[in-house]
Write a structure and sequence with these properties.
The chain is an all-alpha fold. It is 76% helix and 3% strand. A hairpin with a 3-residue loop joins strand 1 and strand 2.
């Protein structure tokens, strides 16, 4: 399964290079299901791998000036605060298992994966909605006042699931702030980089990590993001959104199926 992991990590980098997001959507399930890593530890590994990979992707967009620094700052400040609170205080407070009645029993690790799947399905809905709105409206009004609240929400999701949050950052920037998709992607990569690295740093005192493993996976993911970045200009913005939307929906459904239908989370 180690070979599968390296191939998957390489693919993850390509996805980030092409779409500007989706890294954690591949990385977290890969670590949990292919390498049998405990979900909580996998969220830590996902944060550092996706954070390092996104930093290389962000550099490409910064060089092309396809980013909005003002939006990034408004987004990332509340996001970092919530990430730190969630990783350091909220997650340790969660019980190891939750019992609802006599037939429903959810382990803490399974709950993390279930939430991860649900968030991805919700992100699909946001992206599809944004596509419809963009077709039916030419209004280009930006609502910067909502960005700190969006940042706080993404910070919470990053803290809980170890996801960089790009699958929600991009929809929120496109739908609420009317940001062009390419600019939203570049801005998202900057935010993901900062959120992920801060989240990982907050875990260092409580979780032992295998640095050789992290460096190995990051090396392959960086190769992938370099490949993806070279070809992303060939994809039209609308097609980019559609590909991204359906990809996260399929992955979200697959995770929910794995955790619920196969009775791994509820029994």
């Amino acid at each position: 399964m180690e070979i599968v992991a390296f191939i998957g990590i390489l693919f993850m980098g390509i996805v980030i290079g092409l779409l500007g997001s989706g890294g954690s959507i591949i990385t977290l399930p890969l670590l949990v299901y292919a390498l049998d890593m405990p979900p909580l530890l996998a969220t830590t590994y996902s944060l550092i791998i996706v954070g390092l990979t996104s930093s290389f992707g962000a550099f490409t967009y910064i060089r092309k000036k396809e980013y909005d620094l003002k939006i990034a700052l408004l987004f990332v400040i509340p996001s970092i605060i919530i990430v730190l609170i969630t990783r350091n205080y909220l997650i340790p407070m969660l019980p190891n298992s939750i019992d609802w009645g006599t037939h429903i029993h959810i382990e803490k690790n399974n709950l993390i994966m279930l939430l991860f799947g649900v968030f991805m399905v919700a992100a699909f809905y946001s992206m599809i909605t944004s596509s419809i709105q963009n077709k039916n409206s030419s209004i280009a009004e930006k609502k910067l006042g909502f960005i700190p609240f969006e940042g706080a929400l993404v910070g919470f999701i990053t803290g809980i699931t170890g996801a960089g949050g790009g699958f929600l950052i991009i929809p929120s920037l496109v739908v609420v702030n009317k940001t062009p998709i390419k600019t939203a992607v570049g801005t998202s990569l900057i935010i993901i980089t900062i959120n992920s690295l801060v989240g990982f740093a907050s875990d260092l005192n409580s979780i032992h990590v295998d640095w050789i493993q992290i460096v190995s996976y990051s090396f392959f993911s960086i190769i992938g993001v370099t490949i993806g970045s070279r070809f992303n200009h060939l994809i039209e913005a609308q097609k980019l959104k559609i590909i991204f939307s359906w990809f996260i929906l399929l992955m979200g459904i697959a995770i929910i199926y794995k955790e619920v239908i196969t009775h791994q989370a509820i029994h």
